[in-house]
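Project standup — Tuesday

K.O.: blocked on the structure for the chain from last sprint. Re-posting the sequence here as requested.
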Amino acid sequence: MELFKAIEKRRSVREFSSQLVPREDLKNIIAAARLAPSGYNSQPWKFIVLDNKEDISWFKDHEKMSWLATAPALVIVIVDSSVTQYWLEDGSATITTLMLAATALGYGSCWVEGQVLPYEDEVRDRFAIPQDWKIMAVVPIGKTPKWPDEKEKRTLSDVMSFNTFQTK
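H.V.: unblocked you, prediction finished:
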């Protein structure tokens, strides 16, 4: 899928079919995500890809994250905050790139952070994430039975001005 089409099509998908995501597609998604920009090219990220039922089903026992267990694949995005002061921006850039790559390959995804925070220590323990690495998000990936409807976005003229701030 062409980049601008993927940007237009990307939605937060929270409903997944049981169709598995081939490992080759998961590798291609992560290959794209690792190319995201980072401050001083620090590339402070790692990706823990979960594609087996046992690891994914662990999430169903955690109320706020239980819906994640319906996805055929999950990516835990972590960043090493000791490498760069720009870890938050770097992690955000790589998650955005990951989600666009998933969309380009026809998969739905969702940036899940707030629902993970109450269980951060449990996620860290379960997946052997070192204490000095920040858990940025868990991103479910999979085919969806129904692509979410397009949400209305602000117009270009509402968000952009040339050379000076304008309210419209």
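K.O.: great, moving the ticket to review. The beta strands are 45-50, 73-80, 108-109, 133-142. The chain has a mean pLDDT of 94.
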